[in-house]
Amino acid sequence: MSEPATTRALASQAPSTLWRPRGAWEGAGKTGRYGAAKGPAGIRLMLRDGFGLATLIAADGKEADLRAILTERFGLSLPEAGAAHIEGERGLVWSAPGQWLAVAPSPRDLRDLPEALRGVAAVTDQSDSRALVRISGPQARAMLAKGVAVDLHPRAFGPGQVAVTSIAHIGVQLWQRDAEPTYEIAVARSFAGSFWHWLEHAAAEFGYEVENA
User: Fold this and answer.
1) Which residue in 9, 15, 41, 51 is a FRET match for 97, CA 20 to 30 A apart?
2) Residues annotated as region Disordered (predicted)?
3) 165, burial (CB in 10 Å: exposed 0-12, middle 13-18, buried 19+)
């Protein structure tokens, strides 16, 4: 039997899905200049989207094998404790003993890791579970000092160094990319709104520009 005309009509009008992808920062910062209006902005905030992140946890006694595979097959260098090895938008960031965060321009760039590291390391995609922001500008260090629980002075913390810490009582993973200074901060996606609220208040006195990437 054929479908009743009414059923066919209703089906043709129904949306294919009620869900749509949302960026971690949607509803937070919007592109533009904010805070103190005089002079050049002291802070630049790049709200990142579409990146790839994955947690690597080495199996017991397999760290040397993990290091070899990452180097030979992916050209990645496994960082020592408290360090990040990043070239461009790709690399590895230390997270904890035996644990690292793989960073890539998109999730597709990490899709070969699980099979390549089978039996050597557990690989867990984190691309949709973290919010990522890049902070730079001449006042970036001064702004972060308002909330970060580690010493960011150049004598104590410089390019290629990592801190797993908290900012305004929110757990973060922070690494310094260069001496400008430029920092990258990863925060749990569920805390992105709260973290943004802190960021905009902390940056206001310096004047800040928001960019979407």
Assistant:
1) 51
2) 1-24
3) middle
Look at the pTM and tell me if it is higher than 0.85.
Answer: yes
Do residues 45 and 209 touch, judged by C-beta distance below 8 A? yes
Q: Would you mind telling me the total number of residues written for the chain in this entry?
A: 213
Instruction: From the options 3.10.129.10, 3.30.230.10, 3.30.70.1400, 3.60.150.10, give the CATH code of 51-126.
Output: 3.30.70.1400
Please state whether the peptide bond connecting residue 21 to the residue before it is cis, i.e. omega within 30 degrees of 0: no
> Bridge-partner residues for 57, per DSSP?
99, 122
Q: Centre a 10 Å sphere on the Cβ of residue 24 and count the other Cβ atoms it contains.
A: 24
Q: Report CA 45 to chain centroid distance, whole Å.
A: 13
SS3 141: helix
